[in-house]
Amino acid sequence: MAQPQKKAAEMTRDELTAYIDYSILKPQFTTAEVVELAHTGIGYKCATLCINPWAMDVVAPLVKDTGVGMCVVADFPFGQGTAADKEMLARAYVARGDIEDIDFVINYGLLREGKWQQAAEEIKPAVAVCREAGVVTKIILETDALDRAQIEGGVEAVIAAGGDFVKTSTGFYTGGPTVGAAREVMEHIIEVTDGRAKIKASGNVRDQAHFFDLIDMGIDRIAVGYRSVPTVLGE
Question: Which stretch of DSSP H or E encloses residue 47?
């Protein structure tokens, strides 16, 4: 995590959108809806379009030569696959040669039990596959399901597994309060991570003040839902 060289309020539109993973993850989306939203995200020049695996073949030709990457989610949204499952998905996705990022969900039930090492071992083979292929890994903790100590253990699990990013949320958790990338959550993750991994804020980033605050805090990437992008950009 690196502090930005200028405040978010002073950044150009393109500088701001370079922080955004444009989220197109609702399971009810049709092909036509994915295509329409992909074109919108490309028009914004977002860092990536974050998509479900079935949409890779749809989105790949759209992002080609645009400078916008393709981020696919894996073992999403529950993180309940085995280490072998996660590794298999990683191998299948990186073999395409057109994926920039993969966002994996860690087994956050194990984090709630305090089994940090077991959680790390479950994602480590997949992370290794991605690292060898030059694909960025973002590991989702589902922080809304965790207390502070469990978040700390989750951060340590991500770092032990070699993940590039610690990410907060899937956006699909329904088991309790959903605060997502609230300031206090992000401050805690920044403190625990201590520069050992990058950080992606995800969940409830819906207004410009929050978006700007995350950038000014030094957050490296921010998931913003397709409906919220115009709002966070002040349009």
Answer: none
Angular region, 195: left φ>0, alpha ψ -120 to 50, beta rest: left
Answer yes or no: pTM beyond 0.90. Answer: yes
Q: In this structure, are residues 82 and 120 in contact, taking their beta carbons and an 8 Å threshold?
A: no
Exposure pattern of 56-95 as b/e (b: 16+ CB <10 Å)? beebbebbeeeebbbbbbbbbbebebeeeebbbbbeebbe
Token pair for residue 85? 């499952």
Rounded to a whole number of angstroms, the CA Rg of the chain reads 16
Catalytic (active-site) positions: 103, 167, 200
Helix (H, G, I), strand (E, B) or coil at 155: helix
The DSSP line for 70-125 is EEEEESTTT--S-HHHHHHHHHHHHTTS---EEEEEP-HHHHHHT-HHHHHHHHHH
How far, in Å, CA of 41 to CA of 58, rounded? 14
- The owner of tokens 């500088």 is 15
Position 3 scores a pLDDT of 77
User: Residue range 131-156: average pLDDT?
Assistant: 98
DSSP label of 65: T
